[in-house]
Structures are given as structure tokens and as C-alpha cells.
Specification:
With about 400 residues, the chain is an all-alpha fold. The chain contains 15 helices and two strands. The chain is globular. The two termini are about 25 Å apart.
């Protein structure tokens, strides 16, 4: 992430360029906001005990944040379109931090709900604006950097919930939430320092040039992205039960999830670059076919071989998303990349929320294996869809 600075002769100095400052800023924002989203899981049991919530009540509490974040992607993108990426990302982070600060105040259940909504509003801004910043900065070469941006969110999902869970062993939840709010303020200030005041864009010769196109190709890409997310969330719903069924203890269940997530983070970081060099069609076919095969394999194999396969499954299960995110700029309707990212994130977040309900219903009415099989077959249905996308990708992606 460093590039050579200007200088004379063979001696050149490495400097952190504006291009890579933009990428680092987008990744920092993604890490913070995805961490904010998933640290709620560590807090839900405490809120359940303190406020006497049912499981349905907990789901509704989580939906205040998750639903606000997902549902406001488009309006947030429109409202911030006239602001620069530096101001948009810093403001988004400050708003999310303010939401957590409200939660930390002794205002009862009402204050908690208001804080969750405010935090969700802040996080709704981050995805479209940061993705657009990376795309505008790297142009045609944005597929790999978008994969790194995608990976940074997974890093936040790993760090923040673990940190909150650890802090909750030594402190009450309100001071912990207040501390995480201050982390958000610090990140917002860091973004103001890190992201250049004047937007950096690629040179005209490097810019990503896309033909004016209808939304047909993008709609198909959005469908593929939703199905890919549905597969991932469906499998995650059943994985802990699958590990228990094979004799796994709570420690082994946690370790199995960690193995899958480690592989997933690696997949998000690497598959974007793979798609850039091997092509979208071939990469997606390979990752989805392997996803389906490995899901079935983990369902039937004994515990130890299953654990060995989980990191590999994580790579292909999560890696496809980086390839798909990297394709959004090429298929953006009307070449409006910011709106296209907002639509894409709305679709995949919605699929992530609804898919576990659908697969859970299948498992309830038939069997757990039927639910797992439905998730695997969803990955298979993506293969003909990605082949149908080929004409829309002509002259855009090798």
C-alpha cells in the first residue's frame, strides 16, 4: 500500500500516496461500521436479561439497527452525494458513534432503541460512499482494492465483538458501549486526517469507462449477490447444530466458526484479485460449485475431516462476494456507481436478513439436512445465472 514518491536518481523514497490513503480510509470506515454491527451480538444476552426481552423482542431490537442500516442505503447515498467522501465518511462515523453514546446513557429501554436507530442511520451512509471512493480512486483496477475493502469489514466483525465480550467480563455494559462510542469518535477524526481533503481520482487514461446501459445486467448481478448471501447465511444458521450433532463441544463449535470466518476473510481479500485476473464468470462458477460440494461434504463427513474443510469452505463461501462487489461499477445503471452500490448493499443485506427465516422454515417442516441442502442448491442456481450475465460483461471484464 505504499508507492514511490518523486525524487531524482535511483534513490527513491516510499510514501503513503493519496490513492492509498483513500483505500485505507474506506477500509477503516468499513472496519468500524461492520464492527459496530456485529458487536451487538455480544450485547443482546445482557439486554435480554436487563429488559426482560423475549427472543422475538431481541430480534426486533436488532432490527432497529440492522433494518435502519439496510433500508436507508439509497436515501443516505442521495443525501450525501453532494458532499466529498472525506466529509461523508467522517459524518457517518460520528453519527454511528453518537447512537452508541445515546445507548450508553441511563435512559432505559427507550434510549436504547433511539440509540440503535441513530447508529443505523450513520452506518447506512458508509457502504455506498466508501465503495464509490475506492472505485473512483482506482478506476479499472478497482476490483482488487474492493476485495481488500470487503475484507476489512470482516476484520471489524472479528475484532469488535471479541473486544466487547472481553470488556463485559470486567465492566457493566453501559461503560463498555460508551467506550466503543469514543472509539467511533477517534475513527472519525482519523478519517479526517487520513482521507485527502481534495478527492483523488484516476487519470483520464486509467478511468473506468462504462457504456451507458440499462439495468438488466445489474438486476441480474443483484439477484446473484442476494442468492450468494442467502447461501452463506443459511449455512451459518445450521453450522453450530451440525458441529454439535457430530459430537462437538461448545469450544469446538466456537473453533469451527472461527475456522470458517478465517477462511472467509482470506477469501474476501483474495478472490477480488482472482476475479480481476481470471475473469468474473470462471471465478464465480468455481467458487459456487466448490461451495455446494463442500457444504454437502461437511454435512456428511465426521467431525475432524469437517473441521479441516471449514477454512477452505470459508474461502469460497465468502470470496464470491468480493468478485460480485467488484463488478458493480461495470454494470451500474446510467453509470451511477454510488446509487448502484447502495442498491446492491440493500439487496444483499435484505437477503441476509430473510434467508435464515426461509431455510429455518424448510428445516422445521422437513429436516435440518433439507435446510442445509437448500442452502447448497442455492449456490448451484447461481451458476446458470452468472453464465446469463456474460453478454452484459462483454468489453467490460476479461
Amino acid at each position: 500500500m505504499f508507492a514511490e514518491a518523486t525524487g531524482e536518481g535511483p534513490a527513491k523514497v516510499l510514501a503513503f500516496t493519496p490513492r492509498h490513503r483513500n483505500l485505507a480510509g474506506a477500509c477503516l470506515a468499513h472496519l468500524l461500521h461492520d464492527g459496530y454491527t456485529d458487536q451487538l451480538y455480544a450485547l443482546l444476552p445482557i439486554w435480554q436479561a436487563q429488559f426482560g426481552l423475549s427472543y422475538a423482542g431481541l430480534a426486533l431490537v436488532r432490527a432497529l439497527y440492522y433494518g435502519t442500516m439496510g433500508g436507508l442505503q439509497l436515501p443516505a447515498n442521495r443525501l450525501t452525494a453532494s458532499f466529498g467522501p472525506r466529509a461523508s465518511l467522517a459524518a457517518a462515523t460520528l453519527i454511528a458513534a453518537a447512537g452508541y453514546m445515546v445507548m450508553a446513557l441511563p435512559c432505559g429501554f427507550t434510549g436504547l432503541c433511539i440509540g440503535l436507530v441513530i447508529a443505523g442511520i450513520g452506518s447506512s451512509i458508509q457502504h455506498p460512499r466508501a465503495s464509490l471512493l475506492v472505485t473512483d480512486t482506482f478506476g479499472k483496477a478497482s476490483r482488487g482494492p474492493l476485495g481488500i475493502y470487503n475484507f476489512s469489514g470482516d476484520l471489524g466483525k472479528a475484532v469488535f465483538p471479541a473486544t466487547v465480550a472481553l470488556l463485559l467480563t470486567v465492566s457493566a455494559w453501559r461503560p463498555v458501549v460508551g467506550l466503543m462510542a469514543m472509539v467511533g469518535v477517534a475513527v472519525a477524526l482519523g478519517l479526517l486526517w487520513l482521507v485527502p481533503r481534495q478527492p483523488f481520482t484516476v487519470h483520464a487514461g486509467e478511468a473506468h469507462v462504462a457504456k451507458e446501459r440499462s439495468g438488466a445486467g445489474f438486476n441480474l448481478l443483484l439477484t446473484i449477490g442476494a442468492l450468494d448471501t442467502a447461501t452463506r447465511m443459511g449455512y451459518l444458521l445450521f453450522l453450530p447444530f451440525l458441529l454439535h450433532q457430530k459430537g462437538g463441544t461448545e469450544t469446538i463449535v466456537g473453533g469451527g466458526l472461527a475456522l470458517l470466518f478465517i477462511g472467509g476473510a482470506l477469501g474476501k481479500a483474495s478472490c477480488g484479485w482472482l476475479g480481476q485476473h481470471l475473469g468474473v464468470i470462471g471465478t464465480v462458477i468455481a467458487t459456487e460449485a466448490m461451495t455446494a460440494l463442500l457444504i454437502f461434504a461437511t454435512a456428511f463427513l465426521p467431525l475432524q475431516p469437517m473441521l479441516i474443510l471449514l477454512p477452505i469452505l470459508g474461502i469460497v463461501l465468502n470470496g464470491t462476494s468480493s468478485v460480485l462487489y467488484g463488478t458493480v461499477p461495470a454494470l451500474a445503471p446510467g453509470n451511477d456507481t454510488g446509487r448502484a452500490f447502495a442498491l446492491f448493499y440493500t439487496g444483499v443485506i435484505g437477503a441476509g436478513g430473510l434467508a435464515p427465516i426461509a431455510y429455518g422454515a424448510i428445516a422445521d417442516h422437513f429436516s435440518r439436512m433439507a435446510g442445509i441442502s437448500a442452502a447448497a442448491l442455492t449456490a448451484v442456481t447461481i451458476i446458470p445465472l452468472i453464465l446469463a450475465l456474460r453478454p452484459s460483461l462483454q468489453d467490460q471484464i476479461s
